[in-house]
Amino acid sequence: MLASAVNPYLPELGRVVEVITETPTIKTFRIVLENTEKMQAFDFRPGQVAQLSVFGVGEATFVINSPPTCKDYLQFSVMRAGEVTQKIHQLVPGDPVGVRGPLGNGFPYEAMQAKNIIFIAGGIGMAPLRTLLLFMLENRKDYGEISLIYGARSPQDLCYRYEIPNWQKKGVDVVLTVDAEAPGWTHRVGFVPTVLSEEAPSPNNRIAIVCGPPIMIKFVLFGLRELGFEDWQIYTTLEKRMKCGIGICGRCNMGEKFVCADGPVFSMEELQGMVPEL
After folding, report:
1. Strand 173-178 versus strand 146-152 pairing type
2. How much is the pLDDT for 262?
């Protein structure tokens, strides 16, 4: 039984086993729970999050971006943005951490079966989508065409570049783009919403899953609607400052909903009555 099952505020003791530098500001951390039985029992859905804690500093929320079938480690990609993430970036293999989770709802992948899927991501927004993408590749027969539009400011700001050829080998149609021309860059140039409009995927039997900076999401939604996607066909995962992670403190509430407990994954249909700015 995980400690969080007894006391939801009590983290499990874990240890960093590998650090991967993704971009100048993003690192991926692979973490193993100290208790091997609890490590094997740790179960979650793609899209769920967990609180990572640096003892004596604090904790912050990150999506678990290893696939649920991976029992060797839990993976988190962390953008350096504040005190806790700064400390996390200083961690090296062997350092202790706390893990509190899984938290939130995750993607409704059962309802997406037999559908064509398009992932649309910007920057660190690829982290939550990676988990679902890997899950779908592990269960390939359950899904139709899988495509990905992934963009960043520059080639150096793209995460998981080393994995993309493998995704393509497994049948994912990948379109990469950066905001401006760069030496040696042979893929698309342009903002993600523009590339989406140029690619013009059909909404027929297709689900769009979107994550990235708010401004990207806003214009991607315009683009999807112009292409004929309806709100029930669009999912996103929200990033709000979560604290308790269990819907008690109210720090991440949006109206009557709590991102930590009711999300972070929402369909656009669900969000319509919650966030007018979207």
Report:
1. parallel
2. 73
